[in-house]
Amino acid sequence: MKMTFRLLFMFFWAIILGILTCSINLEALLSTHTMQFIFNSHPDYSDFFAFDLTQIHPKWVLVKFGHFAGFGVMDILFLNVFRKHKYALLMTFLFAAATEILQLYFNRDGRLYRLYDVIIDSLGAILSYYMAQIVLHLKSKVAWKESKVNITQ
Predict the structure, then answer these.
(1) Cβ(115)–Cβ(64) below 8 Å
(2) Structure confidence at residue 27 (pLDDT)
(3) In a domain, 38, yes or no
(4) Cβ-contact 104, 43 below 8 angstroms
């Protein structure tokens, strides 16, 4: 039952990330709750590698933080399912790359740094790995101290 819940939650989060990354206008989606998708059957694959600093907008940092945090959460969800962090990191990286490649097929507003986004997504996953390691280390320290207290009593 727990594994089913973990899988469902992971797929639910993947769908949310997919909608957020492929919607034609993220701001309209978030403010007016309108979803619109436009499919482009002949994308320009060179756009994946394009990086245009003139495309940076006032909410750029917020959007990139969303990438960072969203894929950090995805990594934790993959970790809950796969139980090995190297698999979780690999799956998060592949999912990040897949969503950015998929965006080539959708006419998303101002999307000119997809490879850069994969890097940001992956950095979010790596940070979640280190945060998980810190939490596990702190848990083991607390458990060790509790066992030491029980022994002395």
Answers:
(1) no
(2) 77
(3) no
(4) yes
